[in-house]
Design brief:
Three copies of one chain form a homotrimer.
Chain A lengths: L4 E6 L7 H12 L4 E6 L7 H11 L7 E6 L10 E6 L8 E6 L7 H4 L2 E7 L15 H14 L8 E3 L14 E5 L2 E11 L5 E6 H4 L5 E4 L2 E6 L10 E5 L4 E6 L4 H5 L6 E5 L1
Parallel strand pairs in A: 1-2, 1-3, 3-5, 12-13
Antiparallel strand pairs in A: 4-5, 4-6, 6-7, 8-9, 9-10, 9-15, 10-14, 11-12, 11-15, 13-14
């Protein structure tokens, strides 16, 4: 069950040594782990952005990888610290998740059900028994994740809690209606990436096998296969690599070109 | 021949989980590889900047290191996906290069000839046989690079192609002329680094052993040895660590101070 | 004594391949080392910021970790290149430090005395015997650090020098006075992190066990335990995870809210 692979996701940025210090806490317990950064540039305290980044990354890692995520506006309050196993087989979880119970992981368990959940309350697995009230990443989560990735069993780390008790973040979704024989699916922009691609909440399965277009004001963008199906500078719609309908500009930024932001409504017409 | 070292260079930035996901695909095949980031902050779609960063980094890695580079505006189009061995000895290549055939590697093979080239068309070495049309980094290049770094032979990965057929990026260079007993070498700025140092296309060998200066409008900057040969705030010319004539400001940015940009003409007078 | 763990701290940024090249130089000597980035976003040439980041990170790493730091405005001048062992036990140093002798390490040795210091003048341990005058990070410091982390003894690397001869950076500190039965401690802001938290020079020990507040113009901020002890948007004072009095805004940036900068005076009243 031990994967030896541990990922980190935070909103700490890379200009301070906070991330390095968490890796120091991990290396102090087990320097042989493979430690991989997902991103440390989640906008400060933005749990929704962290939810998206985690949900889209977990499927690409080895079975049993430990994902440590710290976007934690409630650090030091009475929000719970948790560790979870997710997947379909308790003997071989897809992944382990370690972090605050604030909805951060609620995108992952849409896809992979929670097999087991514990509240982290066994200080023997922490860096020190009186952790800093403002840096649980260093003093609780990093050591716990290092122990998990090194083979300690999940139930050792704390008291079992009910999966239903975990904090849910409302998941943005989509609806459909029919209008004069046309199917209209309405979703919204759930993420915008570094290239300015607008990633909607409308999954690939909705448009599969049909001709479809994104309706944008009085324009209709026909669904394409890849960026270069449109001339440089042109706006296009496609199914992105995350598995959702995406709006992009070939060689440019759809965010800048269209002036759209997180949460904006998007309609697909088939 | 197996180095176990794999580097990554992309224009993905660090705010999304794209880079982490590529590392997940690599770890899924071989978590024991040493994976090193060259940079992920190549300006979006800037193949020239990627060419420079790769060309100046390859010489400092262990023999046989695999360099995976994804700056790929043509992803999903009919541009080829390639892997190359470069160096002078086919039994011990200096490096392997994996990425799109768009000129990205044409700086490297100026210095190290292509020993062998394949088009990547054996899906058995990919993450999935129907890769996403917009993320070959995750679905083709990362798995292929992980296989190469783990010891799979280059010809296993695809069909051999002629090195002469590879896409070349026009290489910025320099010219010389004589004027009243003075040698005048004309080049241009081929890169600007984080410190604002202006790196020209004029190689160290051109100025070696002679007194030389950079002529900048009506100023002449005498060639120096290091930044602190000039008082803080002063402009100077020197041979930089990449091996080209460079213009710098001690404790400041030559780019900002002089208002020069990529491609600007620079003259050295001897 | 060999830890196998090596950290990197520079002002190189992440947009060029300078950091990758240093890791290439390290991997060329020993690809099995665990290499951890502290940060590469120290503001260019800012030795004080580097001093703070190092001082606050060293305690969290395994005993014997090698910390390589390159913020080096004097590269190529006659400033010395050094390696140090620090701690209390020469048989088991807390850490080794490698870099320029410019005060970078003077925060670390406030806490851990220098056990042994050498000037790096044995070119046999460098990447090449004539290093680039502008990139000692690649040609001297990275190879030396890789050798140290691989088990080479410190005295092998150069000539022993007196710890008292090392360059000191003036350490920002605090003073106290009594006024009508109240103790007033005056310090300043020594660092500002990614979240805009203002970290003062007033250590936790000064306020331990007492009721205290930070006096800010005509406001008094009572000392709290964690960010969420104050409503979102509220300003608060607390003992931060680094072990100093800190001023923060719950869910926001104290730097932006208060308009304070590095060096600003701060008073604690008890």
């Amino acid at each position: 069950m031990k994967s030896g692979v541990l990922t980190l996701l935070t909103d700490f940025g890379l200009s301070d040594s906070y991330v390095g210090v968490m890796k120091g806490a991990i290396a102090s317990l087990n320097p042989t782990l493979t430690v991989i950064d997902l991103t440390h540039q989640i906008p400060p305290q933005n749990i929704a952005a962290a939810r998206f980044a985690l949900m889209t990354a977990v499927p690409y890692f080895p079975l049993g990888t430990v994902h440590l995520a710290v976007v934690d506006p409630g650090v030091g309050s009475n929000r719970r610290a948790i560790a979870l196993a997710v997947g379909n087989d308790v003997a071989q979880p897809v992944a382990f998740l370690v972090g605050p119970d604030n909805g951060l992981f609620s995108g992952v368990w849409q896809r992979y059900p929670v097999l087991q959940a514990v509240e982290l309350n066994h200080p023997g697995y922490w860096r020190r028994s009186s952790p800093s009230p403002t840096f649980h990443g260093r003093d609780i989560f990093a050591p716990v994740a290092a122990h998990l990735a090194s083979g300690i069993a999940l139930p050792e780390l704390g008291t079992e809690i009910a999966p239903e008790s975990l904090t849910q973040l409302p998941i943005p979704t989509w609806t459909e209606q029919w209008q004069e024989n046309r199917r209209i699916v309405t979703g919204c922009i759930q993420a915008i990436d570094h290239f300015g691609n607008l990633i909607t909440t409308i999954p690939a399965a909705v448009v599969e096998g049909d001709a479809w277009c994104v309706s944008l004001g009085d324009r209709a963008l026909a669904g394409q296969s890849t960026y270069s199906d449109t001339p440089v500078g042109g706006v296009l719609a496609l199914v992105g690599s995350h598995g959702w309908v995406e709006i992009a500009v070939n060689g440019g930024s759809a965010q800048t070109t269209l002036g759209l932001d997180w949460g904006a409504m998007v309609q697909v017409v088939m």
